[in-house]
C-alpha cells in the first residue's frame, strides 16, 4: 500500500466504492486501526496528523480517514497536507476523501503536492449515455438480471442521480429472487407511483400552489420516498426551465409546459439558477456533508420555487464539525 491516497469527484457513490476498496485492501495488509476526521472550519490540522506519529496501543499499522468538507482545504490544511505527503510516517496510511475538485483547487499547492507524491483517484462522472450500461453492470454484480425496459425506467426515474439508482437496486434485492427470472418494468410498478407523484409535486410548485406542494412533499416523505429521487427530479426540471429561460430549446410535454412557463415568469433565469445552486447544496446536506434535516431544507426550497418563501441553505446550514 502507498502511504497517501486521495479520492475525489462529483459522484459520492463512486467515491465510496473506491474508498471501500482501499480500506479493505489496507485491512488485509494489517491496517486494522482506523481513525476518522471530519474536517470543518474549526479543525486543528495539528491534531489530525499528530496521531500518526504516536504509537498505537492496538496495532502497529493505522489508517487516518480524512473527510474534507464542501469548502475544501483552508491555508492551514494546505500546509499540513503538503508537509505530510512530503514526509509520510511509516506504518500510517492516510486516506483523504473529497467532493468535486474545482479548477482553482487543481492549481493549488496542496493538490499539486498530492499529484506528485500520493495516489490520486478522481472518479469520473457517469454521462447520461453511459448510465444504462453502468446500471446493468452494477445490477449484475448484485445478482440482478434487469430487462431492457426496467433499465430504461430506473434511469428515467433516477434523473442521473447514482445514489437513487443504487437505492432502486437495493430495493430490488429484497424481492423474491428464488428463480433467475428477469426483472421487468412491472416489478417496478410500486416505485412508479412515487415517481409520478414526485413530478406532480414539482409541477404544483412551479405553478405557484405552495400549500398543496408542501402537503404533497410531506406525503412523499411519510411514504418513505427516497429524498434523492425528489432532489434529482427537481434539479432536472429546474435545469430544463433554466435552459428555456436563456433561449435554448427543450422538448416538453404540453401539460408540463404551462408549469415551466409559470416558474420562468415568477423567478426568471437568475432565480432559477439560484434554485439550482440550492439543489446542489441540498444534495450535499442529504449526503451528510452539511448539517441539518434535508427534508426540511427541501420543503423550504419547494416553497421558494412556489414564490412563498426564501431559501438560502448556504447561510442556514453549518458545515460538519469533527
From TrEMBL:
Catalytic activity annotation: DNA(n) + a 2'-deoxyribonucleoside 5'-triphosphate = DNA(n+1) + diphosphate
Domain DNA polymerase III delta N-terminal per the UniProt entry, residue ranges: 5-121
Gene3D superfamilies per record: 1.10.8.60, 1.20.272.10, P-loop containing nucleotide triphosphate hydrolases
An annotated GO cellular component: DNA polymerase III complex
Keyword set, alphabetical order: DNA replication, DNA-directed DNA polymerase, Nucleotidyltransferase, Transferase
InterPro entries registered for this protein in UniProt: DNA_pol3_clamp-load_cplx_C, DNA_pol3_delta_N, DNA_polIII_delta, P-loop_NTPase
Molecular functions per Gene Ontology: DNA binding; DNA-directed DNA polymerase activity
Keyword Transferase belongs to the record: yes
UniProt keyword Nucleotidyltransferase present: yes
Catalytic EC class: transferase
Gene Ontology BP terms: DNA-templated DNA replication
EC number: 2.7.7.7
UniProt record similarity statement: Belongs to the DNA polymerase HolA subunit family.
UniProt xrefs under NCBIfam families: holA
Full protein name: DNA polymerase III subunit delta
Highest classification ranks of the organism: unclassified sequences, metagenomes, ecological metagenomes
Amino acid at each position: 500500500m502507498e502511504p497517501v491516497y486521495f479520492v475525489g469527484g462529483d459522484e459520492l457513490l463512486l467515491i465510496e466504492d473506491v474508498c471501500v476498496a482501499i480500506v479493505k485492501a489496507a485491512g488485509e495488509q494489517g491496517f486494522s486501526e482506523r481513525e476518522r476526521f471530519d474536517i470543518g472550519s474549526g479543525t486543528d490540522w495539528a491534531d489530525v496528523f499528530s496521531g500518526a506519529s504516536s504509537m498505537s496501543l492496538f496495532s502497529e499499522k493505522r489508517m487516518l480517514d480524512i473527510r474534507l468538507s464542501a469548502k475544501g482545504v483552508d491555508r492551514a490544511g494546505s500546509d499540513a497536507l503538503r508537509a505530510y505527503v512530503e514526509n509520510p510516517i511509516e506504518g500510517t496510511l492516510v486516506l483523504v476523501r473529497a467532493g468535486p475538485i474545482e479548477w482553482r483547487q487543481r492549481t493549488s499547492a496542496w493538490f499539486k503536492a498530492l499529484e506528485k507524491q500520493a495516489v490520486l483517484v478522481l472518479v469520473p462522472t457517469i454521462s447520461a449515455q453511459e448510465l444504462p450500461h453502468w446500471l446493468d453492470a452494477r445490477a449484475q454484480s448484485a445478482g440482478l438480471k434487469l430487462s431492457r425496459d426496467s433499465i430504461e425506467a430506473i434511469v428515467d426515474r433516477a434523473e442521473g442521480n447514482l445514489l437513487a439508482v443504487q437505492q432502486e437496486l437495493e430495493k430490488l434485492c429484497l424481492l423474491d429472487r428464488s428463480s433467475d427470472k428477469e426483472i421487468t418494468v412491472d416489478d417496478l410498478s410500486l416505485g412508479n407511483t412515487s415517481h409520478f407523484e414526485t413530478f406532480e409535486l414539482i409541477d404544483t410548485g412551479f405553478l405557484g400552489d405552495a400549500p398543496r406542494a408542501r402537503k404533497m412533499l410531506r406525503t412523499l416523505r411519510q411514504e418513505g420516498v427516497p429524498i434523492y429521487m425528489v432532489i434529482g427530479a427537481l434539479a432536472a426540471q429546474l435545469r430544463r426551465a433554466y435552459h428555456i429561460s436563456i433561449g435554448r430549446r427543450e422538448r416538453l410535454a404540453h401539460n408540463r409546459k404551462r408549469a415551466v412557463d409559470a416558474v420562468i415568469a415568477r423567478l426568471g433565469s437568475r432565480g432559477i439558477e439560484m434554485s439550482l445552486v440550492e439543489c446542489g447544496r441540498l444534495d450535499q446536506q442529504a449526503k451528510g456533508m452539511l448539517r441539518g434535516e434535508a427534508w426540511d431544507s427541501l420543503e423550504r426550497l419547494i416553497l421558494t420555487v412556489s414564490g412563498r418563501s426564501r431559501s438560502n441553505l448556504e447561510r442556514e446550514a453549518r458545515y460538519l464539525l469533527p
